[in-house]
User: Fold these one by one.
Assistant:
Number 1:
Amino acid sequence: MGIKRRDFFKMAAIGSVTIRGSKSLAGEEGPALDFAQALGVLVDAVVCIGCRKCEWACNNEHKLSTRTLAEFEDKSVFAFKVQCMHCNNPACVSACIVGALRKNKIGSVDYDAWKCIGCRYCMVACPFQIPAYEYHEALAPRVRKCTFCEPRLVEGKKPACVALCPNEALTFGTRQELLDVAKERIKLNPEKYFDHVYGETEIGGTSWMYLAPTDFVNTELPKLQTAAIPNLTETIQHGVFKSFVPPLALYGLLGLVMHSLREGKDEEEKHDERD
Ligand code: SF4
Ligand code: SF4
Ligand code: SF4
């Protein structure tokens, strides 16, 4: 049943691409989003105790496995969770040729397994390497990533991970509220916080943002440019459909673009090599 559904959409997508020529299926225009009022979460690595209850909550709610990373810097230990950043201008959304990913008005980036054809371009496009694929599912594998617990948000509840965090390391609110909270924490405790809210400007801003006790170049979060990525991925997509570039070449192109957007780690690596 799953294979038939997937095959049907694969054929529909190919047919549609042929009919529409260079026009991206992911380029459906929606109403402009008010990013300041969209919902998000502030992850504060300064107060996170690494208990991993957020991981348990996510797994319990969705059978999803998110990660909590422990970082070691200047002899201090700190932890923070990683998941989909629910980017303001998501590269995964623009890379998806059938519109299976969509940025929602409330702030979440949603995934529609019914539309997904399993091309995994979203996995290559994501600068945070977040989407995972259910390779073990033979019949109807899905792309898996944080859903922002959207059904809970619609019911007026907090995301499951936020609700269970015992140390208020996760703060839920509108993006503007979170930025205000984050900047106030930095201002009141400059000795504890590195003076940057990760996600405020990176790749056009993200709905989930971070505070840390150290420069983010020392963490797993990539150093990224401030410009949003979708223009690039859409340009590549349009070129692909115009020129009938084979899918493998698209993987290569997307991978190359994402690599070029990572600033810090690469510079650091070059520096290390020189040393
Ligand atoms: S973090 Fe990756 S998967 Fe999540 S919205 Fe951004 S590009 Fe998409
Ligand atoms: S918001 Fe929901 S889906 Fe996302 S990490 Fe938290 S519990 Fe998991
Ligand atoms: S539940 Fe809260 S304190 Fe515990 S690891 Fe997750 S974010 Fe950190």
Number 2:
Amino acid sequence: MKLSAGMTDSNQRYGKFHVDISGATSAAHILKIIRNHDGVSRAELSRITGLSRSTISQHVDTLQKMGLVCESGTAKSTGGRKARLLQFKKDGGYVISIDLGATSLSVALCGLEAEPVAVDMRDFDVAASPCETINRAQRIASELMESAGVDQSQIRGVGMGVPGPIEFNSGTLVGPAILRGWNRYPIADALQSRFGCPAYVDNDANVMALGELWAGAGKGVEDFIFVKVGTGIGAGIVCGGQLYRGADGCAGDIGHVAVDYSDVMCACGNTGCLEALAAGAAIARRAERAAVEGTSQILAGLMKEHGQLTAKDIGLAALKGDPVSAEIIRDSGRLIGMVIAKAITFFNPSLVIIGGGVSKTGDLLLASIRESVYRRSLPLATRNLLVQSSTLDDSAGIIGAAVLVLEELFSPNRIAQVIADSS
Ligand SMILES: [Zn+2]
């Protein structure tokens, strides 16, 4: 059975094996079991998978040659004989993760459990070309590797999250509203040639959802939605414990759902989009108008001080008791909640995680989203529903981009390729 990128392996999900599965799928499944155990013997692997001892040994050999599995310690087997234990080789390499936002570029060196070893966050100008940005990310990565004493040969892959609709299989942005100069640019190919290792690119909200699934509020949750509220608005959907990308890769792009019939233009070219009315820029625009018109003295003061206003300023003003700022944030939360309620009706998740820069404006936004979600969803859909803030904060994108690489590197496709290359 050959799996394409993004496809769900039902055998992996349900932990059952059939006799007709390919060697690579078996090897990938065995690797997953070893990664989830702190030491497991070949006999245990045989019992868990139902595969013969000789098949297990053959796959373990492949995984050892790939530098992903090592023997570590012994345990008593049922016959009283000492059995050698297999462990995931955590120090078997590193990955580079890149989290690109509309205003920031974060680059990290991560271990094989997606844990950030070194992180560097810089400002980013959306006018920068893709080539310029990739070269800059590579320079930052080189600095991080040098200071951590990591060699290029230890880098197994590079992963990147970008704000916009990504065609996952080709690693390109298609019709982005923010990074307009990046349309159809082969980001994954350019990363692969610049970094000299396999490269994978996905939408920023998808990548952050992967981060939450691996190490954040979504850990162990089968069905959840991660909503990023920043300069734009987007969502990543986790269904049955796997990221769901949809037919073309843009599932969850909720920022462009129409919420209003006004003539407010969105960067995508349409009018009345959620993003145009409730994201960071819309919040700042309303606040600046209030400052100029003199309806909020606090906002007028902050604007005089900073020259312009950001969502963070409005959050601060609301915390100080400014009713105008509180109203702007509540309106934004109400609209976001309306769209999330629609997504809940379609998908019935047990958790909604709110993250992204604007979500840091304070509890008022989350409270307003919650109120709107609970008011507009069916009682059965909200009976076990939690709506909470991200627990990973700025790390969700970095960890998620590393998970993106690891999922692909440890996939049956990739293992099949390694087996084919070595035979
Ligand atoms: Zn739009």
